[in-house]
Design brief:
Layout: H1 8-40, E1 54-60, E2 65-74, E3 77-80, E4 93-97, E5 106-108, E6 110-115, E7 123-127, E8 148-153, E9 163-173, E10 176-179, E11 191-195, E12 200-210, E13 213-217
Antiparallel strand pairs: 1-2, 1-4, 2-3, 3-7, 4-5, 6-7, 8-9, 8-11, 9-10, 10-13, 11-12, 12-13
Length: 231
């Protein structure tokens, strides 16, 4: 019996379909291998900020109410931007650590406010009691242009929740750092953090927005200690 030859076009179509199935299987296997390799050697990632180490600094007076961001650098020591506490008494301030959508972990009152001796936009708050949250350590190494730092703050429009921004360093001159990220009102006083692989360290404090850039201030040596608040 003579075998009937198949149509060449159909045969070629089957061959192409088979190659396509094989290539898809090969791609799936390659992706699986890559996933297994990534699990065996995962990249180092910085953890979220220690719970309650950053808070919303609130002021509510007879004619005005406003807020900034502040953070712990010691059990009884918090830091914010100096313009956030200008012409305000310590007794009028409320620090809500771990604030999120109307709830907070700790409510502490500052008993003393010390502004930067050199006139920089930085202030140290001595708290009425020791906080339970873990404080941030100060960074020793200066920021490098191109290095990506992290800012967590209560900026608009999300004033009731922490917002994260990844901010490359544009330039550093003296105690000022220019960051390539826009910050909104309410972010002033927020920590500029460097991921360490296991957490964060504080490089500077957010001071202002200048166009599409954020300006942050580095502390003086005396402000990196907690002795002034009795820690």
């Amino acid at each position: 019996m003579r075998r009937r030859a198949g149509k060449p076009g159909v045969t070629l179509l089957w061959i192409h379909a088979g190659l396509l199935v094989l290539s898809r299987k090969a791609i799936r296997r390659l992706l699986l291998v890559l996933a297994l390799l990534s699990l065996s050697n995962p990249p180092a990632q910085a953890a979220d900020p220690p719970a309650g180490s950053i808070g919303r600094l609130n002021y509510a007076g007879f004619k005005a109410a406003r807020h900034c961001t502040a953070f712990l650098v010691g059990a009884r020591v918090a830091v914010t931007a100096a313009h956030c506490v200008a012409r305000l008494r310590a007794a009028d301030l409320h620090l809500l650590l771990g604030y999120d959508k109307g709830a907070w972990r700790e409510h502490l009152r500052p008993v003393e406010v010390t502004r930067d001796a050199g006139g920089a936009d930085l202030a140290v708050l001595c708290l009425e009691a020791a906080a339970a949250a873990v404080a941030f350590p100060w960074a020793e190494a200066a920021p490098r242009p191109g290095e990506t730092l992290v800012v967590w703050g209560y900026g608009r429009p999300r004033i009731h929740a922490l917002t994260r921004r990844d901010c490359p360093v544009l330039a550093s001159a003296g105690r000022e750092i220019a960051l390539d990220c826009a910050v909104a009102p309410g972010t002033s006083g927020a920590p500029v953090l460097r991921p360490t692989g296991t957490g964060y360290e504080v490089v500077a404090v957010v001071s202002a927005a200048r166009g599409r850039a954020a300006i942050a201030v580095r502390p003086q040596a005396a402000e990196t200690g907690a002795a002034s608040c009795g820690d």
